[in-house]
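Supplementary Methods. Inverse-folding protocol.

Structures were first reduced to a discrete structure-token string of length 304. This string, shown here, constituted the complete conditioning input.
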């Protein structure tokens, strides 16, 4: 029986029970009384049961009417909640979001994105995962991540994803003030590799600029490699290491003057991208996260 019922008929049934009359229910529903009467009559015919005793301008539900109205009210409440949840899901207000980031994007971008997502979508379950770019790409392709933030040389190999540019920056070298290398700047590859370097690993474009290296230069190139920029920065802050990375990673130290830029005879760009699948890009919350990320990268880090 229920499969053949119309939700509108159930709404009419509940309204008549609540109002106690067809005229009162029709007024609440904003329809004519004859329309309401025909709707209830069709429902009674469908069920083969009398739902109301009519008389004296009132409509008293029968035993069947009481039971039918109780179930109808619960069903309508469930339908209403289902609609609300679907709308919330479409707006990104419920459900989950899984974000992947690399060494640089977790420094400045991720904390601000997490803050804004939590503020805008408080009921959204959020997972943030850190890993190397290739692992993040595999996770995105397998569906265990919804979106990934990465540097520009990775998206070129990932043409099957939706790619959204977040920001432009430069990869730079930084040292402590009064570092001896500052006297020689701008540095050639040979001059740079006379000093021990701290980095998260050289990207292909930077390795191309360095060219062929001697054994000693190679040792300096890999003197300290870590996937944690806090450790990379600490080597430059506490010793004569030259630290390498996107400018925004060193933003606070450059503003404070605890680190200064060491000019090189090359400019190597850094582009931050958000990658996601075509299906995930349909989600309003994913598009909003892209907006949050752009805003985060435009915002200057406040002084300590």
């Amino acid at each position: 029986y229920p499969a053949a019922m119309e939700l509108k008929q159930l709404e009419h049934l509940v309204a008549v029970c609540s109002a106690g009359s067809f005229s009162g229910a029709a007024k609440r529903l904003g329809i004519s009384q004859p329309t309401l009467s025909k709707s209830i009559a069709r429902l009674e015919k469908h069920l083969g049961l009398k739902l109301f005793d009519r008389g004296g301008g009132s409509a008293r539900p029968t035993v069947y009417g009481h039971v039918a109205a109780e179930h109808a009210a619960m069903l309508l409440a469930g339908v209403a909640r289902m609609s609300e949840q679907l709308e919330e899901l479409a707006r990104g207000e419920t459900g989950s979001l899984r974000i992947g980031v690399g060494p640089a994007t977790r420094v400045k971008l991720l904390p601000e994105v997490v803050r804004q997502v939590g503020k805008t979508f408080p009921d959204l379950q959020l997972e943030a995962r850190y890993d190397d770019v290739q692992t993040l790409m595999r996770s995105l392709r397998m569906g265990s991540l919804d979106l990934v933030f990465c540097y520009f040389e990775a998206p070129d190999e990932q043409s099957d994803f939706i790619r959204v540019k977040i920001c432009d920056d430069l990869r730079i070298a930084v040292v402590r003030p009064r570092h001896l290398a500052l006297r020689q700047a701008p540095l050639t590859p040979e001059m740079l590799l006379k000093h021990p370097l701290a980095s998260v690993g050289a990207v292909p474009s930077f390795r191309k600029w360095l060219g062929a290296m001697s054994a000693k230069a190679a040792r300096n190139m890999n003197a300290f490699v870590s996937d944690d920029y806090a450790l990379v920065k600490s080597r430059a802050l506490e010793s004569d290491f030259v630290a390498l990375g996107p400018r925004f990673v060193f933003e606070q130290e450059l503003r404070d003057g605890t680190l200064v830029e060491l000019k090189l005879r090359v400019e190597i760009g850094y582009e931050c991208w958000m990658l996601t699948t075509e299906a995930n890009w349909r989600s309003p919350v994913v598009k909003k996260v892209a907006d949050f990320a752009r805003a985060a990268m435009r915002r200057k880090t406040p002084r300590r």
